[in-house]
Write a structure and sequence with these properties.
Blueprint lengths: L8 E6 L22 E7 L15 E4 L5 E5 L2 E7 L3 E5 L2
């Protein structure tokens, strides 16, 4: 099934949380928080007032309680407005 966001909405896919810390300590699954970094899966066309600046494949940071969560085919997604994206992650 495909989802196409409307207006200035963006569909994000949750990135896998790291299982270990930088020093190599394993994290228990119950202690993990929701990921803050998501991959852009699909972007709406925008509106006359909002030009879309994110693209499919971008890695973005959103707030912990931002957007609407959706699980489809056992994959976690999140719908957000473009204004809810805090940053684009670059290397």
């Amino acid at each position: 099934m495909k989802l196409k966001p409307m207006a200035d909405n963006v569909l994000l896919k949750a990135q896998e949380a790291q299982e270990t810390t930088a020093s190599g300590i394993l994290l228990a699954t119950s202690n993990k928080e929701k990921p803050a970094i998501y991959e852009v899966v699909s972007v709406g066309p925008g509106t006359k007032d909002v030009t879309m600046t994110v693209s499919v494949g971008d890695k973005v940071v959103v707030g912990k309680f931002t957007g609407t969560d959706l699980t489809l085919d056992k994959v976690d997604y999140k719908f957000v407005k473009q204004d809810d994206i805090l940053a684009v992650v670059t290397d």
